[in-house]
Amino acid sequence: MIKKFFLVALFGILMIGGAIWYFLKFREGTAVNQNVPQSIKSMETVTITTKDGVQIIGDYYPAGAENAPMVLLLHMMPATRKSWVDFAEKLNEAGMGALAIDLRGHGDSLNKTDGTYLNYKNFSNVEHQLSIHDVEASVDFLKQKGAEKIFVMGASIGANLALQYAAEHSDIRAVVLLSPGLDYRGVLTADLPPQLRAGQAVYFAASSEDSYSADSIRMLYQKTPEGVIKEEKIFDNAGHGTDMFIHEPDFEGQIISWLKTL
């Protein structure tokens, strides 16, 4: 009985001591808390309303300096804005800002201002095409934040939307297109490259086993006119869209280095 009482008491002392240690450690700031990247500390979740009344949710990573380039990040389907976290942090480290959004019907961008619930799984092709309004509203948001040099980067259907927007807006300095296609859910690209203006830049990337995207970028690259800065990258067995970052760890740095030249 005495032995059992002693063990219970010892256990209680250890638990109390552990709690005190944790409290003090928390107050001092653990190594993990102290090493949180600055981009995460300054990242702000924002709500952007499109002209057709959709509430778009985004993660905004401010740039550290005035007039720094800003990069709008458009995910593939069925991913979300969180697929860009690592890349957004690297952009911040390189002195650029970023805005990663959930396209309508994805992630947290599920509602219109009239209370209508949106789910991309139920979208018609026409409803997918309306996602261009998400891009428009997001670029406007960045301009309101003072951005003068804006790049748009997308994966899969996000790449198609990025190219469409850049073709229609010559003030977009550059687009980076990961695994675009000629037709994703009615967002067509075949006729867009000739609409790009001299001085704009476009980076096409795909993986060879992703034959539809690889064939698409070869055609789109050939259709891109003289005067437009263009780059083409085809990997082997690197996957689709942002999955290429996993299989090609240096790829993120290569894109950032290219953007810094513009």
Produce the secondary structure layout.
Elements: H1 2-28, H2 31-34, H3 38-42, E1 44-49, E2 54-61, E3 70-74, H4 85-93, E4 97-101, E5 111-112, H5 125-129, H6 132-144, E6 150-155, H7 157-168, E7 174-178, E8 183-184, E9 187-188, E10 201-207, H8 211-223, E11 229-235, H9 243-247, H10 251-260
Parallel strand pairs: 3-4, 3-6, 6-7, 7-10, 10-11
Antiparallel strand pairs: 1-2, 2-4, 2-5, 8-9
Give a verbal description of the structure.
Residues 1-37 have low confidence and may be disordered. The chain has two domains: 1-35; 37-260, Rossmann fold, CATH 3.40.50.1820. By secondary structure, the chain is an alpha/beta fold. The protein has helices at residues 2-28, 31-34, 38-42, 85-93, 125-129, 132-144, 157-168, 211-223, 243-247, 251-260; strands at residues 44-49, 54-61, 70-74, 97-101, 111-112, 150-155, 174-178, 183-184, 187-188, 201-207, 229-235. The strands form two sheets. Strands 1, 2, 3, 4, 5, 6, 7, 10 and 11 form a nine-stranded mixed β-sheet that branches. The chain has a two-stranded antiparallel sheet with strand order 8-9.
